[in-house]
Amino acid sequence: MDQPDLTPLQTVRARIAHSATIAHRKPGAVELIAISKTHPAERIVPLIEEGQRVFGENKVQEAQAKWPELRERYEGVQLHLVGQLQSNKAEDAVQLFDCIHSLDRPSLVSALGKAMDKLGRQVPCFVQVNIGEEEQKGGCAIAEVPALLASAREAQIPVVGLMCVPPLGIEAAPFFALLAKIAAENGLDQLSMGMSDDFETAVMLGATHVRVGSALFGARG
């Protein structure tokens, strides 16, 4: 799919469209989140000027440092939090981000619920699922997803879908399929899954949001 006359953004969008077409989905049903974590503003601006409007950061403080000025300069930019969120940063996250992909535990449900109520701002959230049951990774255990969803809904947090990061070095498709199954069982239709190495597979298995960094910005040094 890579064509030398296309920019990285055009190439990624073309690959998403191709995968969606194979799966009999509309390419427009997949939101591309450009993962700009660790990249300075001067690396981000060219993508914004090329038309990309949805970006992902994994740290509240880093996003606070670089995005307010960029958002003043460019209209329509959306910012998604894709990294682990500490409960004591919940209010900052609700104030800054348009979507949170890492709701994964009861204490964070409580913190986000209070922050949203205080600020009067309902931020859509994905529940992050530890889909590979890896001890070192964040995410809600598969068996605990229904209970966490129930508590989030009780706290009036707008949960829109599920998110996962499959284990490294293993075929991602079964994990994406499992996440889609869990989402369907719990009445959710949005799936945040797929990164630079596997987003095409994710699209074919129902991803509504793909989180792509290195394929757009190049590998970090």
Question: How many beta-strand runs?
Answer: 8
Work out the strand percent: 15-25%
Report the radius of gyration as a whole number of Å: 17 Å
Order of helices and strands: HEHEHEHEHEHEHEHEH
| Main sheet overview | 8 strands, parallel
Low-confidence stretches: none
Keywords:
221 residues, alpha/beta, 8-stranded parallel sheet, 8 strands
Can I get a quick summary?
The chain has 221 residues and is α/β, with parallel strands linked by helices. Helix content is 42%, strand content 16%.
Any chance you could write out the topology, listing elements then pairs?
Blueprint: H1 8-22, E1 31-35, H2 41-49, E2 54-57, H3 60-73, E3 78-81, H4 90-96, E4 99-103, H5 106-119, E5 125-129, H6 145-154, E6 159-164, H7 173-185, E7 190-192, H8 199-204, E8 209-212, H9 214-217
Parallel strand pairs: 1-2, 1-8, 2-3, 3-4, 4-5, 5-6, 6-7
Explain how this protein is built.
Strand 1, helix 2 and strand 2 form a beta-alpha-beta unit. This protein has about 220 residues and is of the alpha/beta class. The relative contact order is 0.15. The longest helix is centred in the N-terminal third of the chain and has 15 residues, at about 10-20. The protein is built from nine helices and eight strands. Strands 7-6-5-4-3-2-1-8 form an eight-stranded parallel β-sheet. The radius of gyration is 17 Å and the shape is globular.
